[in-house]
Amino acid sequence: MTDTGFFDGVYQVVRYIPYGRVSTYGAIARYLGSPQSARMVGWALNKSFDGKGFIPAHRVVNRFGLLTGKHYFGYSDTMKQLLESEGIIVKNDQILDFDRIFWDPVKEMPEAEAEIWKDA
After folding, report:
1. Is 48's pLDDT higher than 90?
2. Which residues does residue 23 pair with via DSSP β-bridges, in sequence order?
3. Calpha distance 59→57 (Å, rounded)
4. What does the mean pLDDT of the chain come to?
5. pLDDT tens for residues 2-37?
6. pLDDT for res 43
7. How far apart are CA 62 and CA 73, in angstroms?
8. Residue with more model confidence, 1 or 88
9. Which of 69, 103, 112, 113 falls 20 to 30 Å from 75 in CA-CA distance?
10. Are 90 and 84 in contact, with CB atoms under 8 Å apart?
11. What residues are paired with 94 via a beta bridge?
12. What's the predicted TM-score (pTM) here?
């Protein structure tokens, strides 16, 4: 898979993260068949602001529920505000009750979409 194909895959997966839920860079990389590429997921999301349409990048955090990508949102509180507007509680840049709201694409991606990636 090329970088462009991987980035497009990231965007497709992130668009499926439900409102009020979050996923992680690593979970998305695992879903796309490249478990060592969590940083590349972050790079893709950094590029998502370049006219890719709405991609809810604010719903992607690190494996501990920390808002490590917050500095890419223009203002330091934007990511937190977006998450809080969805009912997610954030304290000291960490999502509270992270295990409950974590969305794992490996387990929760709609079947029709999952089939597309198995064939890629």
Report:
1. no
2. 60
3. 5
4. 89
5. 557 899 999 999 999 999 999 999 999 999 999 999
6. 94
7. 16
8. 88
9. 103
10. yes
11. 66, 91
12. 0.89
* DSSP E strand stretches across the chain: 23-24, 60-61, 90-91, 94-95
Kindly state the tokens that stand for 13: 């997966």
Side chain identity, residue 64: F
Check the CA dihedral 51-111-116-27 and report its sign: positive
Q: Residue 66 in 3-state DSSP?
A: strand
> Both tokens of residue 112?
């029709």
Where do we find the tokens 């890419």?
A: 72
Contact present, 88 and 18 (Cβ < 8 Å): no
How does pLDDT run across 50-65, given as a tens digit for each residue? 776 889 999 999 999 9
